[in-house]
Amino acid sequence: MSGVPRVLLADDHPVYRDGLRLMLSSTGQVDVVGTAADGHEAVARALDLRPDVVVLDLQMPGLDGLSATERILADAPDTGVLVLSMHEDDDTVLAAMRAGARGYLLKGADQTEILRAITAVAGGEIIFGQALATRVSGYFSRLAHGGLTRAEPFPQLTPREREVLELIAAGLSNSEIAERLFLSPKTVRNNVSNVFAKLQVNDRAQAIVQAREAGLGRR
């Protein structure tokens, strides 16, 4: 990256999106090269414009922010994704990390914090808002002390499919999974079908047995 970071903003709320664009542009510290109103548009514009950083919300119509992140990084792995969301629960933050996001801020972060995060992500760093940093650090500390050396189960699954399998094993229905992951019911059905095919099982019960034998769904 040379000069100021080139940024794409993706959020389905036009007032917030346009306000953020004006605020960032007025600083002269970033170059807002485009905006997107939904996940599909975010992916298309990211692959067309090749920004240094995509700042996106998670809950967007058509394609959620987690899926958009995965698709962007599949074709443009050097792009940094910074999530800007109102959701602060651990599951959502960790799901964003698994999808490949390099940063996570809560909506309500001030101008200085957003600019600092964009610059850090553009430079290849991983950054979390002040409200989340302590919790994320504690999570990884617990993992380290737990000595997690076992290989991750079901390597044939994508991160999203593994996440869906985890929730299946925990007893959630498709509609509950859709609500938890901010996905459409159709997207969940497609992921469930992919999981069944890759695990070579015929139904939910068989998938649950395999998942629980591997230690999933016991939270």
Could you please describe the fold and organization of this structure?
- By secondary structure, the protein is of the alpha/beta class.
- It has two domains: 137 residues, 3-Layer(aba) Sandwich (Rossmann fold), CATH 3.40.50; 55 residues, Winged helix-like DNA-binding domain superfamily/Winged helix DNA-binding domain (Arc Repressor Mutant, subunit A), CATH 1.10.10.10.
- It is 54% helix and 12% strand.
- Strand 5, helix 5 and strand 6 form a beta-alpha-beta unit.
- Helix 2 runs parallel beside helix 3, helix 7 packs across helix 9 and helix 7 packs across helix 10.
- The chain is elongated, with a radius of gyration of 18 Å.
- One of its GO terms (biological process) is regulation of DNA-templated transcription.
Widest sheet: strand ordering: 2-1-3-4-5-6
Poorly predicted residue ranges? none
Residue fraction in strands: 5-15%
SS summary, helix count:
10
Sketch the major β-sheet: 6 strands, parallel
Helix and strand composition category: alpha/beta
User: How would the global form be characterised?
Assistant: elongated
Enter the CATH topology name of the largest domain. Rossmann fold
Radius of gyration: 18 Å
- How far apart the termini lie comes to 42 Å
Number of spatially distinct domains: 2
